[in-house]
Structures are given as structure tokens and as C-alpha cells.
Amino acid sequence: MTRVVVVGASVAGVTLVQGLRELGFAGEIVLLDAESGRPYQRPPLSKEILLGTSPERADLVDEAGLESIGVDFRPGETAERIDVADRRLLTARGKLPYDHVVIASGAAPTVPAELRHLVDDGAHLLRTRRDAAALAAVLRSERSLMVIGGGVLGSEICSAAVSAGLRTILLARPTPAIGPLHGVFAAPLIPLHRAHGVEVRTEPARVDRSAGGWTADGGDHPALADAVALAVGVDATACWLANALPTTVDGVRCDTSGRVAPGVWAVGDVADRAGGRYDVSRRTQSAAIAQAREVARRIVGAPQQRTAVPYFWTDLHGIRVQAAGRIPPSAEAHVVERDDAGTPVAFAAVDRGRCVGAAAWGSARGFRRARAMLGDTTIPQEVSR
Ligand SMILES: Cc1cc2nc3c(=O)[nH]c(=O)nc-3n(C[C@H](O)[C@H](O)[C@H](O)COP(=O)(O)OP(=O)(O)OC[C@H]3O[C@@H](n4cnc5c(N)ncnc54)[C@H](O)[C@@H]3O)c2cc1C
After folding, report:
1. What CA–CA distance (Å, rounded) separates 89 from 97?
2. Of 37, 189, 224, 256, which residue has the fewest beta carbons closer than 10 angstroms?
3. Relative to the CA of 91, which ligand 1 atom is closest?
């Protein structure tokens, strides 16, 4: 009987095993995860769960649900090595032969060497359900929070901290970048944080813990806070694959279909897909789901479905930030819509004369307009409200 082993039981791994069964796959499925407990998804961790919703609300499926579709779910079992030639996985519990193995082991927070002392001193990271519960306790009990990193995660933490009533300090780079948005596309970020009371500092600062709390030097006066959260990016190096398959901080290199080697596939945050670097959905839940469905179809030999336009969103201070398509660093931003104060809120991304991406800050109409231009070769005209 054909055996598929899936490493990682979060959204990519769970979607993959469910997809296999929906497609009629009748072989054996083993689903491993290094963490114990039920499979869960991460988006609620930086949003409602930080604000007090029960961490169980992030559950994806329970053990009975997996058992009912014939999945051998093994929480707490970590993949330690892979033998690609012999199609075997080595886990903490022994050897696991496979016909197909799907790497869905995700990513982990980056902690650069110069910031490691912060984690040792108790700064918070946010990736797991346990991390979210610890940071939620900070939002309940402390009066101020310093967030290092102004990307999607750091910005979402700031948004939650402000709405929980904490004085919030954000240490960010002077050139804003959030998810797939950079340069002009990300320009509304810092003004948005400031408008909602976040104290944004963009000068370099050293952060340290002292008896009175946490201090950031730099600027005219030091910033002080009761707690620190660190959100400076993720690292998708799957160390357990080292020496067997090429892996970097961007993940495991695979082709445009998710194939890494014969019988080896990668999906979700760990998949460094050829050609996918500037997709706005890179390292998002929607990409993990789409890739898992696609690879499930490839494993069973089912025809592929049409791929959706890549999509990204986040909610910050009650504003929906959206993007679609691809936004390479070389893309020019063409303003598609401004708000009543004349500030650009929707953009088309134009690369080599063609509209390849769309982005909008709090403007559903502007986003629709920009997205409708995808593929156009006429340079979009600016539209005022
Ligand atoms: C706090 C937070 C909020 C987010 N919010 C959003 C959002 O609003 N919208 C959005 O689109 N995306 C969001 N994301 C990103 C999104 O959650 C990820 O893109 C998604 O989780 C990727 O899923 P994955 O299954 O590939 O990897 P992961 O979710 O990282 O899961 C990987 C799993 O593999 C397991 N694992 C790792 N190594 C091994 C091993 N050697 N053996 C066995 N198991 C292993 C891990 O324990 C983990 O459970 C958020 C991420 C975070 C952290």
C-alpha cells in the first residue's frame, strides 16, 4: 500500500492530508508534528487570542476528525533525518519508510545574534500557541510594550497592544516594509501606527533589560517599557534535512509544482518555490492551503485546478491592508486612489510596463480598481476620490 508521510501538522500539513482523502487516496497517511496537542492555525494568535480569546479557538481539527479519515496522527514525534535514496524518514521513534514525503515543517522566528540576549532575558517571540498565551498575559497585566520589528507580525502586535490599552513603542527600520509591501507601497504604515498612538522610533537603538524594565537607547531620550516582543522575520531552514536536501533560511528549494526530489514535496512556509519569491501570498496561510491542495492532486495524479491570483491581507488598527499579484523590488508604484486628505491609499505595481500587482490601505474600492488592472500594459491613470 502506498504510504504518504507528512512532516508538520499545521495548516499546510492538515490541508494536505484532508485533500488526499477528498481526492480518494486510499493508502496509508502518517502525519507527524514536533509539538504535542491538536493541530492549530497561526493567524488568530496575533489577533483575537492576544486580546483574550481562548487559544483553543485556533484549533484546525481534533484527533477524532483525523482518525475518522484514517490519518495516523503522531503529535510530539519529530522528523530528525531523511534518507532520500532509500525513501525513509528517521524520527525520534524510529524509521518510517515512505512512498511520498511532504515537508510541511513551516518556519521559526529569526533571532539575529545581536538580539539573542533579549530572548535570554525574557523578550517574547510569537509563533506558537504557547507564545501567544504568554504575550496575551502581558497585554492583560502590563502597562507598556516595546515591539522590535515593524513587519506584519510586529505591526499586528502593536495593533493588539494599543487596543488593549498599553503604551506601545515600535522600533522599526526607517524604510518601512510589511509583508510583500515595501517602499511607496508601504509608506502608509508608520503614519498609521502614529495616528493610533504607537510611538514609532526609527533610529538605531540598543535594547536591554534592567531592574526597572526594558530600555531602548537612541533618539533624544531612552524609551522604557514593561515588556518586549521581538518580531524581525522568520527562518525556514529545516535543519533536519541538512546534508540530504538543499535548505536555506528561505526554506527547501522546490520547483514550481512543489517537487523537491523524487517522492519528496514541500508545501507552506518551508517551501522555497521557484518563481514564487515576489508573490504577495508568500508565507501566508492562503499560499500554504493552495500549495497543499496542489501537491495532494499531484500525488494522486489528479488534474490541476486553476491557480488563484496570490492574495495578502492584514488588519491593523481596524484598517484592512490588502495586496494581490506580485510586487518585485523593481516595481513602480502608480497611485490608483487617494483619500480625502490627498494621501495615496491604493496602488498598482507596474513592472516593465505591465501591471503585476495591486495594494491598498483601508480602501476596498481602490483595491478593486488596482486589482482589475492586473495584466494591463497601459500605465494606469491616477484616480482621485
Ligand atoms: C502569529 C502569526 C500570525 C499570522 N497571521 C497570518 C494571517 O493573518 N494571514 C496569513 O495568511 N498568514 C498569517 N501568518 C502566516 C501563516 O500562519 C503561515 O504562513 C502558516 O502557518 C504556514 O503554515 P505551515 O503549515 O507551512 O507552517 P507552520 O504553521 O509553521 O507549521 C509547521 C509545523 O511543522 C512542525 N514541525 C517543524 N519541524 C518539524 C519536524 N522536524 N518534525 C515534525 N514536525 C515539525 C511545527 O511544530 C509546526 O506545527 C501568521 C503567522 C504567525 C506566526
Report:
1. 6
2. 256
3. 42
- Give the type of residue at 196: H
Which residue minimizes the CA distance to atom 7 of ligand 1?
Answer: 43
Give the whole-angstrom CA distance, residue 309 versus residue 16. 20
Amino acid at the residue 256: T
C-alpha cell at 313: 491581507
The C-alpha cell that represents 353 in the structure block = 510596463
Q: Is 151 in the pocket of ligand 1 (CB under 6 A)?
A: no
Identify whether the C-beta of residue 150 lies closer than 8 Å to the C-beta of residue 172.
yes
Q: What angle do CA 375, 377, 379 make, to 5 degrees?
A: 115
Q: For residues 319 and 189, what is the distance between their CA atoms, to the nearest angstrom?
A: 11
Q: From the alpha carbon of 312, which atom of ligand 1 is closest?
A: 11
Ramachandran bin of 172, using left for φ above 0, alpha for ψ from -120 to 50, beta for the remaining angles: beta
**CA neighbor of 100 nearest in space, from 286, 284, 298:** 298
Q: Which residues pair with 289 in a beta bridge?
A: none
Query: Is any ligand 1 atom within 6 A of the Cβ of residue 75?
Result: no
Q: What are the strands of the beta sheet with 88-91, ordered from one edge?
A: 79-83, 88-91, 94-97
**Phi, psi values for residue 61, rounded to 5°:** -165, 155
Grid coordinates of 282:
508568500
pLDDT along the chain (385 residues), means of 10: 96 98 98 96 96 92 95 97 96 95 97 95 97 97 97 98 97 92 95 97 91 85 94 93 90 95 97 91 96 97 91 96 96 93 94 95 96 86 52
Taking phi over 0 as left and psi of -120 to 50 as alpha, with beta for the rest, 268 belongs to: left
CA 304 to chain CA centroid, Å, is: 25
Which atom of ligand 1 is nearest to 287's Cα? Answer: 19
CB 157 within 8 A of CB 126: yes
**Choice from 61, 105, 139 to test ligand 1 binding pocket (greatest atom count within 8 A of CB):** 105
Atom number of ligand 1 nearest to Cα 8: 34
Q: Is the CB of 135 under 6 A from ligand 1?
A: no
